[in-house]
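Friendly challenge for the regulars: who can give me the structure tokens for this chain first? No prize, just bragging rights.
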Amino acid sequence: MDNYTKVSGFKKAIRSKAFTLIILSIGLIVLFTLLAPLNNGANFFTLRTFMSIMQDLAIPAFLAIGAGCLMVSGAIDLAQARIGALTGVIVAVGISWWGISWPVAVILGLAAAAVFGLINAILVNELNFQPFIATMAMSSVAYAIIMLVETDKNGQISGAVNFSSPTLTNFVNMKIGNNIPITAIILVIAFLIYGLVLSKTKFGRTLYLLGGNATAARLSGINSKRLSYFLFINCSVLGGISGLIYACRGGQGSYMALSTDQFTGLTAAILGGISFGGGSGGMGGVFIALLAIKIFNKGMTIIGASSYLTSVLSGALLLAALSLDYVSQRRQQKRIGA
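First reply, four minutes later:
Bragging rights claimed.
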């Protein structure tokens, strides 16, 4: 019986999306290691490259965690990246133009993100908007507010606002032992915490039930609205943290911040096994998927590939992830019907 259980568990692990993504990541590392020397003798397989990948993970990681938790419950947020950009702009303008201290600026920025999350939840739960429509509209609202905040005394809109805060800049760029980025350690801890909450707690099981069968969840006495409020606010605040990291690294708040990561979190969540319809997946798969995406992006840069080609392939990856998720859902529905 023990041997059967071990064999069964091994087969299940091999068939999991996480295992597939690990193999994909290894394959990408081998591919780019072979191709990199063709670009003027560049080298992909170095410690510096992998530490750079880990540092790059921090910004989309918090987007992916927030989006993933929301998707498990069966909802989606398309305003998250724009809200993150707004957070960064508020911090930059607060420090540079308004003359407030960095802690107050950070609190204001994250508070604004939380307010957007609250409004998203109100639109979805009280006004019965579809999450897709509500958050897409709020993304436009966030963009408009960014333009307002970036308007200077002369009525000119600044494309980007520079600011100086050695404390924030030094912290987000800090490295442990001159190699390991502090943000990489923080994101790993965040993935572990959210992963354990989803897989080991009553709260996590409730989210899966809500995403898998919302009607059954309500009939069982689950307060779906309260959960939805928390998840939308959590998603927006985590987006705000991504925007804060982005702004502090470059000392600049911009309406263009996180624009290239708009769908990275969603792609990683779906590739990692979180169904677009909710009720399945976990943070382990999301982390590995995000790692694979960043290995791909870094590799394309090192081999000298066109940024446009990288964007096209990234879009194709999102389409492939959505297609695979659709096929998986259809198969699951057929099994239930059978």
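The domain at 49-332 is CATH 1.10.3470 (ABC transporter involved in vitamin B12 uptake, BtuC). The longest helix spans residues 307-337. Your move, everyone else.
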